[in-house]
Design goal:
The complex is a heterotrimer of chains A (about 475), B (about 90) and C (about 475). Chain A is α+β, with helices and mostly antiparallel strands and about 475 residues long. Chain A contains 16 helices and 17 strands. Chain A has 3 domains: about 5-290, no CATH class; about 300-410, no CATH class; about 420-485, Orthogonal Bundle (Arc Repressor Mutant, subunit A). In chain A, about 40% of the residues lie in helices and about 20% in strands. In chain C, helix 2 (about 25-35) runs antiparallel to helix 3 (about 50-65), helix 9 crosses helix 11 and helix 9 (about 305-320) crosses helix 12 (about 370-395). The chains are: A alpha+beta (about 475), B alpha+beta (about 90), C alpha/beta (about 475). Chains in contact: A-B, A-C, B-C. Chains A and B meet through strand 2, helix 1, strand 9, strand 10 and strand 16 of A and strand 1, helix 3 and strand 3 of B.
Chain lengths: ~475, ~90, ~475
């Protein structure tokens, strides 16, 4: 990283809202539907059609605003943004311009080194465009309008980010936030989270900003970092060689890992914004904000702290479990069934996560029901089964979906805790291994472990190891005593 | 004063390509209209709010309930150029 | 049965209910008249098959003893209103082959009431114009004098009703497009309060001004038609939830004591003396019927033309951005690239007046000019609306003035001078900008036997008073007995 230059990055993130219907019409927002099967006259911008705003879109806007400590504009309105593009059926996008729904907020991001507060300039509602598929061979582009009109929140950060890594951390935090709020799936690969990045450099200590470039439409965390790193190096080279950065819009080519200038969408980018006469303005009274606030789930930051203070987990585990809302929800449910936070955390972050990775899923409930995992942990804590047995039971639980108690009962996997039964087993083992007993009597303490192992083996692992230890020691002491006496 | 090149610039923004004859007429008419609307400059509009909506209604919202889609055939029925179930345009160069 | 289409809607209702004639007979009669007077060029599409099917259906309901105000009544629809399965062109080459997959809300309402849609009316392209001379399908002729314009932009609707080809029709009014052709054609036309009728399915010209209006040969006919199409529609965010009075029920009530404001600015320079005299005489007549007249002032109305052309053009340039040749509409052949597809499709398919307004609108919204033009116009619009508010609060219950400064002019007379054409809307634009209801009704003829229109402007949502006053005037005068001689 450059020592003599400071990197200044601002991000414009587009968050797809997970409403059932589109921003301004009742067409479905289903992802991955066959081309042009989620349309209606409004989506197609047929002559005579009119928009009607989706209440849930507005509420999600308020919710994200509250979660990012923004001021909610009591009076805000929609504006038309004009440009011609085949994926934009009306020739304008319904957006917000001079009166966005949220302004002046912030979001705390954590990187390996520190945690920092990043300013949010504004959040506004708008509709998405359709999708183009290019066929250079035929010199044609094909157009699918399913996505046209899906509601988005555009979240504009202040130019407060100071490295590509911070930019990624910011995006991850935003993704985590919208997923916890349940307003978006935040999936970058499916385009539910997209971002444009503004980047400029300035000599360290300089207050004013350098000339910035804008990288459009980056669709993965990795590419955000790569694109910004490439652009940093490119701008440094220009500046060091005494040339200047040209203010322009760039596209990132993930194949080559480079950026290149975009063909200008509109020669002069004159969007001719004006208030949309088809859509009356919004007035958001305090009561509506409070209503939304009351429906708002706990934020990831709060839950991260709860995991440490209420459940006594360490910062690392708290971080892992709050990576996804599903994880921490799952953790709490498991805890409710076993009251053992540490164990619940260990089981989830090792065994459950391993299965999730295999399945490529992030729904722990799909691996094993939280109630079942809780019950398994309780069986261990009550010493009904050993930790080793528990691993087998867990495997069985994931494949059959059955309750661990049922598995333990049916397979006779119950731990042997009867002193009489254990004593018989121990006496048998000691008889078969008289040589090792002799060694013990000669003062070799290490053979005790071997003997415990033999008892466990003899019980096919179902003996309670703690009791085996105690009882074996008792037996050996008895033999020692007898030897002394004789 | 609007010149022909100004008209062309605006026309290009509006994706219009008027012929040479039309360009002259449009430029002449535009100048006459712009000259006429200059009368608005004589008014003192200090403190006057712009009227972007007729009635003072607010918060006209629909519930988030999806309705059935048009069929693909209906959606594409008025398009002149299509490919499979897509609308087709000359290639977009980004 | 002789020419039932020439009867008023009220008479037709009675005739259908009495089984004097069937809806099929009535509809066929209209279709025949439409064909016979094709030279008026009042129609773009005749829906004979659908119309006869609808009429047949209406007859089956009538046979069962059912009735409702429009059951079995043939109507014509301005071709700016979308009709499912019936070509909707907006009189533009752009939409010459467009077949909508959906019905406008007003069409749904008419169908629910059992009305029969016989044909789609010619108009100025995209409802931009005051004479029908901007139609891609050629101009409509005024039934009173075929060398003259019928007014516009709802030209075909007004001409068809005036000529007795249909008993009623739907139009749209953005700056006077129902009232001015009603005046030129000697019939009754009303543009209701903005938000009274759903705009869903009305091809947008200027969204903050467009309203659907109706035409009839009698005030009562218009009241019935408006009653059917009015009301809140959740598909149009600008349609308003307001109580809907029974317009017909209060038609025949006394107008004694009603205060009529006469705006002095509407009787100044530019008003044809014969129109001026006729309108003043009409106001005197209303006074003789018990109303009171007082002079009022609407000082900012003089700016309406300038304000209108900025705002309407701006909204039009935006609304017409969707016509790009991709999903529907005209598409230039063999485009070399995307820009070529856009530019040629639009320039080849839009007429000169549409292009003129798109250009003007694009300009006034463009960066550096927005404040000077668009924002300023919106502020003056506020002043125009406040003028009305003030006089309605303090001085009067309704306003009476001319609908248009002249009677119908000759075809071609103003084509070369768009600004001159715009100035013909000077008396209808202020009410449009303020969102107020306006009604035009016949109040006499000039020396060339061309109809003159009286415009009544009401408080928001008070169409009922306009109907009441119009009905009183209609009862007291004989203009309604005059009909054009179609030869």
């Amino acid at each position: 990283m450059p020592q003599d230059y400071e990197i200044v990055i601002g991000l414009e993130a587009h968050v797809h809202l997970s409403t059932k219907s589109k921003a301004f019409c009742a067409s479905s927002t289903q992802f991955g539907a066959a081309p042009n099967t989620c349309t209606d006259p409004v989506t197609l911008a047929l002559p005579g059609t009119l928009p009607v705003a989706n209440r849930v879109m507005v509420e999600y806007g308020i919710m994200l605003g509250l979660a990012t400590k923004c001021e909610i504009r009591r009076s805000n309105r929609f504006a038309r943004k004009h440009y011609f593009y085949p994926d934009l059926p009306k020739g304008y996008q319904i957006s917000q311009f001079d009166e966005p729904i949220c302004e002046r907020g912030s979001m705390t991001i954590r990187t390996a080194e520190s945690s920092r507060v990043i300013g949010i300039k504004r959040i506004h509602m708008e509709e998405d465009a359709g999708k183009n598929i290019h066929d250079p061979h035929c010199g044609a582009s094909y157009l699918d309008l399913n996505r046209a009109g899906v509601p988005l929140l555009e979240v504009v950060s202040e130019p407060d980010l100071r490295s590509p890594a911070e930019a990624v951390a910011y995006l991850r935090t935003l993704r985590q936030l919208v997923r916890f709020l349940g307003i978006s799936d935040g999936n970058m690969e499916e385009g539910s989270l997209r971002c444009d990045a503004n980047i400029s450099l300035r000599p360290r200590g300089e207050m004013s900003f350098g000339t910035r470039t804008e990288i459009k439409n980056i669709n993965s965390f990795r590419f955000v970092e790569k694109a910004l790193e490439y652009e940093t190096v490119r701008q440094i080279k220009l500046l060091k060689s005494g040339r200047s950065v040209v203010q322009e819009t760039l596209l990132f080519d993930s194949q080559t890992g480079t950026t290149h200038p975009m063909r200008d969408k509109e020669e002069s980018s004159d969007y001719r914004y004006f208030p949309d006469p088809d859509l009356p303005p919004l007035r958001i009274p305090e009561s509506w904000i409070e209503e939304v606030r009351s429906k708002m789930p706990k934020l990831p930051e709060q839950r991260y702290h709860d995991l440490m203070t209420v459940y006594g987990l360490n910062a690392y585990d708290a971080g892992v479990l709050t990576a996804e809302r599903e994880y921490v929800d799952y953790f709490e449910e498991v805890f409710n069934h076993c009251s053992n936070a540490k164990s619940a955390c260990n089981w989830i972050t090792t065994e459950v996560f391993a299965k999730l990775r295999k399945q490529g899923s992030n729904q722990p409930q799909d691996v094993v029901k939280a109630a079942h995992l809780g019950s398994l942990i309780r069986l261990i804590d009550q010493e009904v089964i050993s930790g080793k047995m528990a691993k087998n039971v867990f495997e069985e639980m994931t494949s059959s979906g059955r309750d661990p108690k049922e598995i333990v009962e049916k397979q006779g996997l119950k731990q042997i805790t009867s002193e009489g039964d254990l004593k018989t087993m121990i006496v048998n083992v000691l008889e078969r291994h008289s040589q090792q007993v002799g060694e013990y009597l000669a003062g070799n303490q290490r053979v005790v472990g071997f003997l415990v192992g033999q008892v466990m083996k003899a019980s096919s692992g179902s003996a309670n190891p703690k009791m085996v230890n105690q009882l074996l020691q008792k037996e050996l002491d008895l033999i020692k005593q007898k030897n002394k006496d004789s | 004063m609007f010149k022909a090149e100004d008209t062309l610039k605006i026309a290009s923004l509006a994706r219009l390509a008027p012929s040479q004859d039309e360009l002259l007429v449009l430029t002449k008419d535009s100048n006459a209209i712009l000259e006429y609307v200059r009368q608005l400059e004589t008014l003192d509009l200090t403190g006057v709010q712009p009227m972007s909506h007729v009635h003072g209604v607010t918060n006209v919202l629909r519930e988030d309930e999806p309705e059935p889609s048009l069929t693909v055939d209906e959606a594409l029925s008025n398009a002149i150029d299509t490919h499979d179930n897509f609308f087709k345009v000359p290639i977009i160069i980004e | 049965m002789t020419e039932p289409a020439l009867l008023t809607l009220t008479q037709l209702r009675a005739g259908l209910d009495r089984k004097d004639f069937s809806s099929v007979e009535l509809t066929s009669s209209c279709l025949k008249l439409i064909e016979k007077h094709a030279d008026l060029n009042a129609f773009i599409e005749i829906c004979e098959e659908q119309a006869l099917a609808q009429a047949k259906h209406a007859d089956s309901l009538l046979a069962k003893g059912e009735t409702s105000p429009l059951l079995g009544i043939p109507l014509a629809i301005k071709d700016a209103i979308v009709t499912a399965g019936i070509r909707t062109t907006c009189a533009s080459k752009m939409l010459q082959n467009f077949i909508p997959p959906y019905d406008a809300t007003v069409i749904q309402k008419l169908k629910q009431e059992g009305a029969v849609i016989v044909a789609k009316n010619n108009l100025d392209e995209f409802a931009m114009g005051s004479s029908s001379e901007n139609s891609a399908f050629g101009p409509v002729k005024n039934p009173w004098d075929k060398k003259r314009v019928p007014g516009g932009s709802s030209s075909g609707s007004a001409a068809a009703v005036a000529a007795g080809l249909v008993p009623g029709a739907l139009g749209t009014d953005t700056g006077g497009s129902v009232r001015q052709p009603a005046s030129f054609c000697g019939i009754v036309g009303i543009k209701p309060t903005y938000g009274r009728v759903s705009r869903y399915g009305v091809v947008a010209y200027a969204s903050s001004l467009d309203q659907v209006g109706v035409f009839g040969r009698r005030t009562a006919d218009c009241a019935t038609l408006l009653q059917t199409i009015a009301g809140h529609d959740f598909k149009d965010s600008t349609s308003i939830q307001q109580p809907l009075p029974d317009f017909s029920a209060n038609l025949e009530t006394d107008i004694k004591g009603l205060k009529i404001g006469v705006p002095k600015e509407y009787f100044e320079e530019g008003l044809d003396p014969q129109v001026c005299d006729a309108v003043k005489a009409a106001i005197d007549k209303l006074v003789s019927l018990g109303a009171q007249a007082c002079e009022v002032s609407l000082p900012h109305s003089q700016y309406a033309v300038a304000v209108y052309y900025i705002i309407a053009s701006a909204e039009a340039s935006s609304n017409l951005s969707r016509y790009d040749g991709v999903r529907y509409g005209y598409r230039a052949s063999n485009p070399s690239d995307l820009q070529d597809l856009y530019c040629r499709s639009r320039s080849e398919a839009f007429g000169i007046e549409v292009q003129r307004r798109i250009l003007m609108g694009t300009f006034v919204l463009s960066s550096g000019y927005f404040e000077a033009y668009y924002l300023r116009a919106q502020k003056v619009r506020t002043l125009i609306a406040e003028d009305f508010k003030r006089v309605f609060e303090n001085d009067c219950d309704l306003i009476a003035c001319p609908t248009a400064p002249t009677t119908a002019y000759l075809l071609g007379e103003k084509v070369q001078n768009p600004l001159q054409m715009y100035l013909g809307d000077v008396y209808t634009l202020p009410a449009s900008l303020a969102g107020l209801p306006g009604l035009s009704l016949p109040c006499g003829f000039d020396s060339q036997r061309l109809p003159i229109g009286l415009q009544l402007i009401g408080r928001p949502w008070d169409e009922a008073t306009l109907f009441k006053v119009a009905q009183a005037y209609e009862n007291a005068t004989a203009w309604k007995t005059h009909a054009p001689n179609l030869g």
